[in-house]
Amino acid sequence: MSVLDNWHQWKDFLGDRLQQAQQQGLNNEVISSLAYEIGDYLAKQVEPRTPEEKVLADLWRVASEDEQHAIASVMVKLVQNTH
């Protein structure tokens, strides 16, 4: 089973990676930039597997680049607050 198959596992996975990035000294600006790149890759290359991922993919698809950066930043905040 992939972490992409379950929304809670995906958030936990992202939270773990975020914690590792922070421990390595990456600041929030760099982390948000990486989150944008990951979100863009997932939106273009990976089929959403959960209802939550489908909503994110739909939002990403219609968002401007600035809005996509905002979505990525919100995802970072989401996993920071739940991890």
Automatic annotation (TrEMBL):
Lineage top rank: taxon: Bacteria
Protein name: DUF3243 domain-containing protein
Upper taxonomic lineage: Bacteria, Bacillati, Bacillota, Bacilli, Bacillales
